[in-house]
Task: structure prediction
Amino acid sequence: MINNQELILHYTNESINGFLKITVSPASVDLDKYKWKTDKFYTLDDGTRALYRGDFDLGYEMRFQKDGLHYRVAIGNKKYLKKKFQAEDLIEIVESMQ
Result:
């Protein structure tokens, strides 16, 4: 799906009983503004800061900003997922996108 401000890729994966969702939009707010109490910052291999959110009911999410764009990579359907995901799992996905 694409609109004037964001691109959304949504992939359903039956083997994990969930989905992978990647959203790309213009970076209009500093990444620090998205941090909640239990979120943690990580540094990707290329030095990009990434914010991991694993403590919310819907899924696991990693956000990062690069070249004026804001990326959100999420694994969802948390209640029904066949496994728990860690920050390292999302980092692996994010780094494979580069």
